[in-house]
Design goal:
This protein has about 300 residues and is mostly helical. It has one domain. The protein has 18 helices and two strands. The protein has a two-stranded antiparallel sheet. Strand 1 and strand 2 form a beta hairpin. It is globular and about 50 Å long. The mean pLDDT is about 95.
């Protein structure tokens, strides 16, 4: 039986697509909450107190796309207020550069893996081979974050981490995650949900920390909330309506439907096997407590 025929008999389900999204996200995101992050970016002269505090986050995450001006960073980080992004990016490329910030990102991932405890029994080499095959066959149209993160694999091959299988796994998972994320932003635009509106929806679902972190002015926030109330998404600032919950679920499902194309040519069994290869690393990250900021507690708690 050909691979195509086999895939037709065992199609990749949306449940599996969502499983791989969860796994690659949990592998990727600890660098954004790591207590060591400030120290790593400070080595590049980036970050600090007040408006500069988020410079390391914005500068390192967009570094794969080059030394972007603040306006392009605002466009990339859809749900963040320009009032947060622009001051954080001011002067950043005068003290550092995109390659240095990308290397800082891998240093931070290395710090995290070292603290979690690297295990030679993890099937990282097999996972890398499978993920590399996936990303080598992805289309990039409309997915700038994913494309940039694919392009920096060349830098990784020239870096001190060229032979580090876990850092490569982290970078490959980053590509997969950003490919999905780029599609999700496209859906938010087409809904349409403005940047402030999508933040208000997320805030109503997960709590006030979202509003506090994204920096929208009272005027912008009130406009977003009132518009969502008028459209039937919210009943008030903190409460999604049944319609709002349903529409949010539709957006997530549609994102998974678009992301299913990532696994074209693979069977559901093969994609789940890839998930099985990644899972031991993710479980170690969970048990280290590094995912507590997103509500994922160690399995023994």
């Amino acid at each position: 039986m050909t691979d195509t025929a086999s895939a037709a008999l065992d199609p990749v389900t949306l449940e599996t697509v969502n499983r791989l999204h969860d796994l690659t996200t949990r592998l990727h995101v600890p660098i954004y909450f790591a207590r060591e992050a400030g120290d790593e970016y400070a080595k590049e002269g980036v970050g600090g107190e007040g408006p500069k505090a988020m410079g390391g986050y914005f500068g390192s995450r967009t570094a794969a796309m080059g030394e972007l001006p603040a306006g392009m960073v605002v466009a990339t980080f859809y749900n963040w207020s320009p009032d947060v992004v622009v001051p954080a990016m001011e002067g950043l490329w005068d003290v550092s550069n995109a390659e240095a910030m990308q290397l800082a990102r891998w240093r931070l991932a290395d710090v995290i893996f070292n603290s979690v405890g690297r295990d030679d029994a993890w099937p990282v080499a097999e996972a890398n081979a499978a993920l590399q095959n996936v990303v080598d066959n992805l289309p990039w149209g409309g997915r700038p974050m994913a494309a940039g993160n694919y392009d920096v694999l060349g830098l990784l091959d020239r870096s001190p981490y060229a032979d580090d299988a876990l850092i490569r796994l982290w970078q490959l998972a980053t590509i997969v995650r950003e490919w999905r994320g780029d599609a999700h932003i496209g859906l938010l635009i087409s809904e349409p949900l403005s940047p402030a509106e999508c933040t208000a929806v997320t805030n109503a679902q997960y709590g006030g920390f979202v509003k506090a972190s994204r920096g929208w002015s009272d005027k912008a926030w009130d406009t977003a909330v009132s518009g969502l109330v008028e459209r039937g998404w919210l009943s008030d600032e903190d409460t999604l309506t049944e319609h709002g919950s349903s529409q949010r679920a539709v957006l997530e499902q549609r994102t998974n439907e678009l992301s299913a194309a990532m696994w074209e040519g693979m069977t559901d069994t093969e994609v789940n096997h890839l998930g099985d290869l990644i899972e031991p690393v993710v479980d170690a990250i969970i048990d280290s407590g590094r995912l507590k900021p997103i509500g994922v507690r160690p399995r023994n708690e």
